[in-house]
From TrEMBL:
Chain positions covered by the region annotation Disordered: 65-94
Swiss-Prot/TrEMBL keywords: Signal
Gene3D superfamilies: Trypsin-like serine proteases
Signal peptide: 1-17
Protein's organism: Herbidospora galbida
Domain of life where this protein originates: Bacteria
Protein name: Uncharacterized protein
UniProt entry tagged with the keyword Signal: yes
């Protein structure tokens, strides 16, 4: 695969803000989005497979986890899940995992492997995320630190995609490239832990077509290069009648449809009472402080408990929620906290996302997950993101 105009996969612009809402572009054109999908899908999905759980600082010192004071700023509210607009009830002892949850992938950059000529993602990493209800069924929720680069302060993460149901290079419902990211202004500017959440509009899913790449002319190849389609194409020189002949190819893609149509979307709840029960769904990875490697990060896991007020100065969080959970920090960042989860329909109300974990009793085992409290300002960010159309890139 030719490297092409590697940097042109993303169009970086200054953040725009309206009140408490900050918005930043991810991939603003169809060719840029398709190029990003090609980075992750081609070459046997090698870049997806090689990605590691995001290792941003998520383990909070126990002395900082204590009763805080999250309070509702307006009346409680909910938005029904996709397909669950008419209220249903069900009970079950077995936990059916939600289809909406998956992994978001991003990288620091790209480079060309001198041995193979393939484009390789630099430091590819992943977090947990989930699909949520929106007007165009195209919205993903995760931790703000899984979208906005709090380590380098270079705006948003690069080459951002969501893969629901991801497992060892498999993308059962396709890859969904991020178009626009929304968060609270205080997180975008000040990295405020009380506002560590993000909502990302994604294009229709895209999947790799069957068979080898299609052969194209040199002129067509150059057009792709000129327009930032470097990941989409490849060239190969081979001997023909004793002469070197260069051939040009482009990868085939097909539209996988809208995210919400394929996997559904969780509802959204805000200003809920502290002490409510939630399920936490995520992909924890890494070991506990004592070295016990309880999770691999390969499969979706769940925990259950009642929320309590917490604070964590280490991540600038003074009004947080906590829940008892043994999820370790790596990989579980962005895990969905679902209230009133309906087991048969695999739907509930998103009421938090994991932004940190803690060993609260000092026994060197993680026992607590932390989330920003979803209030009326969170709903304002969600509402701004829930009404943006994206469309197909295939």
């Amino acid at each position: 695969m030719a490297a092409g105009l590697l940097a042109s996969a993303l169009v970086t612009q200054p953040a725009s803000a309206a009140g408490d809402v900050a918005s930043d572009p991810l991939a603003t054109t169809g060719i840029a989005a398709k190029n990003i999908a090609a980075l992750w899908l081609t070459e046997g999905a090698a870049n997806l497979i090689n990605a590691q759980p995001y290792n941003v600082e998520t383990t909070v010192p126990a002395k900082h986890v204590s009763t805080g004071g999250p309070t509702a700023d307006t009346k409680p509210g909910i938005v029904p899940a996709i397909g669950d607009e008419k209220k249903t009830t069900s009970t079950s002892k077995n936990i059916n995992l939600p289809k909406t949850t998956g992994k978001v992938f991003f990288a620091d950059g790209v480079k060309k492997d001198p041995a193979t000529g393939r484009v390789v993602a630099v430091n590819p990493r992943w977090c947990t995320a989930t699909s949520v209800q929106s007007a165009y069924r195209n919205l993903v929720a995760t931790a703000g630190s899984c979208v906005y680069d709090t380590e380098t302060n270079s705006a948003t993460m690069n080459y951002w995609v969501f893969v629901p149901g991801y497992y060892q290079g498999k993308t059962p419902w396709g890859v969904y490239v991020g178009k626009q990211a929304f968060t609270h202004y205080d997180f975008d500017v000040y990295e405020d832990g009380d506002r560590n959440y993000a909502f990302v509009n994604v294009y229709n899913g895209i999947s790799l077509g069957q068979g080898a790449p299609a052969e194209i002319t040199e002129a067509e190849y150059n057009t792709y290069q000129k327009n930032g389609g470097g990941f989409l194409t490849r060239k190969k020189t081979e001997k023909v009648d004793g002469k070197d002949v260069t051939k040009y190819f482009v990868w085939k893609f097909k539209d996988a449809g809208r995210l919400g149509d394929n996997v559904g979307g969780q509802g959204f709840a805000y200003n809920q009472k502290v002490g409510s029960s939630v399920f936490v769904f995520g992909y924890p990875s890494g070991s506990h402080p004592d070295g016990n490697a309880a999770y691999s990060g390969k499969t979706l896991k769940w925990s259950y408990g009642k929320t309590f007020a917490a604070k964590a100065s280490a991540i600038k969080g003074e009004e947080l929620l906590g829940v008892k959970s043994s999820f370790t920090g790596q990989g579980s960042l962005g895990s969905a906290w679902l209230a009133q989860y309906k087991n048969t329909r695999r739907l509930g109300y998103l009421n938090g996302v994991t932004i940190g974990v803690s060993d609260s009793d000092g026994n060197k085992r993680i026992d607590t997950s932390l989330s920003s409290y979803f209030d009326g300002e969170t709903y304002g960010v969600y509402k701004a993101a829930a009404n943006l159309w994206t469309g197909s890139i295939a």
